[in-house]
Amino acid sequence: MGTRQALKFRQAGPAGQRVLGRSFAAVFILTSALAFAQDAAPPGDKPQEDTGFFATVGRWFSQQSANVNSTFKDARQKVEGFGQEAGAAAKSTVEGAKDAAGAVARIPNVRTMSGHEKCQVAPNGAPDCVAAANAICKTKGFDSGRSLDMTTAEICPPKVWMAGRSTGPECRIETFVSRAVCQ
Predict the structure, then answer these.
(1) Buried b (16+ CB within 10 A) or exposed e, 33-44
(2) Is residue 40's pLDDT more than 60?
């Protein structure tokens, strides 16, 4: 600046300084208002979380701690449930053993006998093996019996076999009692 311009500025004096001061004040107020508007969050928004490294690591540890706590809680509940189920199973097993012992005590003279007795054919064509089971038991000295195991076979006359056939209209199905429960 030359000397003349500096003098002109000084001659403007207080009025120029007031304009300059007012313009600085206006710029300062506008900048402050903009900064405040950016900092103020809308009423519905959440405050922003810290996104730094340490904040992220802290959140991760919190989540892992919650996961471990829930896992231990679930495991504890399962162990408690297992204990209750085991107790119920033990009680039912004891009761089942008592029932089985009582059933065996009620039938003291029961035995399983083996034999080979042919079943009669009932009027409907099915085998009737009650008499065959009784016959097996009576030959062993018992009063009665029930069939426990049966065998079914196709019985063919020798001429079928000699003709080289394994079956034919002459063949018939027969059922035998092979084991019986005797009393």
Answers:
(1) eeeeeeeeeeee
(2) no
Residue 45 has pLDDT above 70, yes or no: no
Out of 20-29, 48-57, 120-129, the most confident range is 120-129
Instruction: Output the pTM of the full model.
Output: 0.39
How far apart are the C-alpha atoms of 104 and 110, rounded to whole Å? 9
> Residue 52: its pLDDT value, please?
80
